């Protein structure tokens, strides 16, 4: 027969096995934390800005040159990188801010410091070499790239929160499962459901204290038919 439980019994059941819920929740949360941190390769982005005094049409040509192999080879050489110029060019994006002469050189890398170094070195190499390539020298620095410690692909703590909630739900469900499998008679209600009869009374737990208390009451009744507290005499 399925057990019918009220809110008070639910509270007692959860309190009795609270340690199980806590253990399952902690394990699930820890698993979520490890999943969140171990399976993600964090990427960091840094950007340097330069001012290029060119028309919008010529600006397109200069932006292409910034990521060309002739510039990338010198950046690889200066930073002693092990990647190819083509691979390095894939990490770099170049765009004009609000169609102005301010050009942003953005770099994405797994190392935040290296991302900033590549952006700054690319700007420096371009400024020094562009005059030799197309006889153009109207380039000046605006701002250098700074190390950005915050990854651009971070998933935040969403996975951890989900793992915590799932652990809590699983823990509570497991506690109720254990309770449903428990055939121990714990209350008058369990007795009534088991034998189909109404409980009229119950026998209190017998121990040395209860026995002595019962003898005390008997002596009080027998003493001259009056109630006398012998402990105070």
What does the model show?
17% of the residues are buried. The protein has two domains: 7-38 and 156-195, no CATH class; 44-143, Alpha-Beta Plaits, CATH 3.30.70.1130. Helix 2 packs antiparallel against helix 7 (158-181) and helix 4 crosses helix 6. With 233 residues, it is α+β, with helices and mostly antiparallel strands. The protein is built from nine helices and four strands, in the order ααβαααββαβααα. The two termini are 56 Å apart. The protein has helices spanning 7-16, 18-38, 56-66, 69-79, 85-90, 112-134, 158-181, 188-195, 208-222, and strands at residues 44-52, 92-96, 102-109, 139-143. It has a four-stranded antiparallel beta sheet with strand order 2-3-1-4. The longest helix is centred in the C-terminal third of the chain and has 24 residues, at 158-181.
Topology, element by element:
Blueprint: H1 7-16, H2 18-38, E1 44-52, H3 56-66, H4 69-79, H5 85-90, E2 92-96, E3 102-109, H6 112-134, E4 139-143, H7 158-181, H8 188-195, H9 208-222
Antiparallel strand pairs: 1-3, 1-4, 2-3
Helix pairs in contact: 2-7, 4-6
Write out key terms for the chains shown.
single chain, 233 residues, alpha+beta, Alpha-Beta Plaits, four-stranded antiparallel sheet, 55% helix, disordered C terminus
Trace the largest sheet across and list its strands: 2-3-1-4
Shape: rod-shaped
Number of β-strand runs: 4
Structural class: alpha+beta
**CA-atom Rg in angstroms:** 39 Å
Strand fraction: 5-15%
What is the H/E order?
A: HHEHHHEEHEHHH
Write out the CATH superfamily name of the largest domain.
EIF_2_alpha
